Amino acid sequence: MNKIIKTMMEMLNPQKNTELKPAFQYSREHLPTLWLLGKTGAGKSSLIQTVTGLDGVEIGNGFRPCTPTALRYVFPPEKPLMAFLDTRGLSEADYDPSEDIRVCGAASHALIVVMRAEDPEQSDVLRALHQIRASGKIRDLLLVHTGIELIESLDERQRCIGHNKNQVEMVWGLADQVAVDFIGKNGRPAGIADLIHKLQEHLPVIAALFEEEMNAGVEEENFLKLKKEVMWYAGAAAATDVVPGLGLFSVPAIQSKMLHSLARQYGLEWNRTLLRDFFGAMGAGFALQYAAAFGRRQLVKLIPVYGQIIGGVSAGVASYGFTYALGRVACMYFYGKNSGDPPSPEEMKERFDRVFTRMTRMMHDKKD
């Protein structure tokens, strides 16, 4: 076994994962966040149900106070991938969004303004929106018009949508928008596919959440059951790798914990033998790629100012893509090992490169 593989095995099989607890806690506090701004009854809870697939009771029971004026809901509750921030107190004249801005500014985020199409009275929302805009810290906004099918006339519907859009743009500037009805006529919701597409553009984790394997076979179906867990580990690695000094220890520990958990769910014991076999199947070139790329990311973050901002963001994107791809290929390998038909090194490397490229592009393509 060459020195590179041995070094990598030591990094991914630490004796003590002392960095895991603070790393996962940091990740939970810096989840990608959808900040929902809108009046009571505008459809914010329905939007959350659409993204999560949960019912209103589950969501309602999951909200927790986050700031004096906002409630936070994390999804999934046990191993969260994202968060929703629901602003309260909009009708209070002295509403101060500074704490809500701080919470959303700590993670990748999107501000979602939810307005019922037939409701032209949006002064509370617009006042809050003006304060948020003035902070200069939140730039990504999506305007969601709800209840569109309550307006029978198409001309009147477009007039109402246009009116609320104009109100928002007078305060904010140009705004991306989508029109939906979560109930719809005869119980058939309208515009949901467009909403999901828009949300995916504004928050990449949603794109990953809704992505499905094409022509899924048995192995792919097995992976889909573990996908959210792999995304959770990838999100934790990304969040902690943004911070100079933290990622050097936390990322290998998180990846090690992920591989241990995935192996167990395939009925395998994660030990040095399985670790050696897995990375041996990936090939020495993969070991070199891992060690070199990880080392470069940590060195860049040490550069004053540039490294802490640009290097940290790039490291987070790369760590997300790498950790997710590592988990995907590990599931592929564990399934093959159990079935007596392990994938070839070429198949594993091709799958890893394809998944890594897709995930990093997804994270980079977020709209500015």
Question: What does this molecule look like?
Answer:
With 368 residues, this protein is an alpha/beta fold. It contains 15 helices and 7 strands. The protein has helices at 3-12, 20-29, 44-52, 56-62, 98-105, 123-135, 154-172, 192-202, 204-210, 218-241, 247-265, 272-282, 284-300, 306-339, 345-364, and strands at residues 33-37, 64-67, 70-75, 82-87, 109-116, 141-146, 176-179. The protein has a 7-stranded mixed β-sheet with strand order 2-3-4-1-5-6-7, sandwiched between helices. Helix 7 (154-172) links the parallel strand 6 (141-146) and strand 7. Helix 1 (3-12) packs across helix 13 (284-300). The longest helix is centred in the C-terminal third of the chain and has 34 residues, at 306-339. It is elongated, with a radius of gyration of 23 Å. 39% of the residues are buried. Residues 298-313 have low confidence and may be disordered.
Notable traits:
368 residues, alpha/beta, seven-stranded mixed sheet, 15 helices, 7 strands, 11% strand
Structural class: alpha/beta
Mean pLDDT: 81
Shape: elongated
H-E string: HHEHHEEEHEHEHEHHHHHHHH
Evaluate the radius of gyration.
Answer: 23 Å
Distance between the ends: 45 Å
Strand count, sense and barrel status of the largest sheet are: 7 strands, mixed
Kindly report the spatial arrangement of strands forming the biggest sheet. Answer: 2-3-4-1-5-6-7
Strand content: 5-15%
In helices, the fraction of residues equals: 55-70%
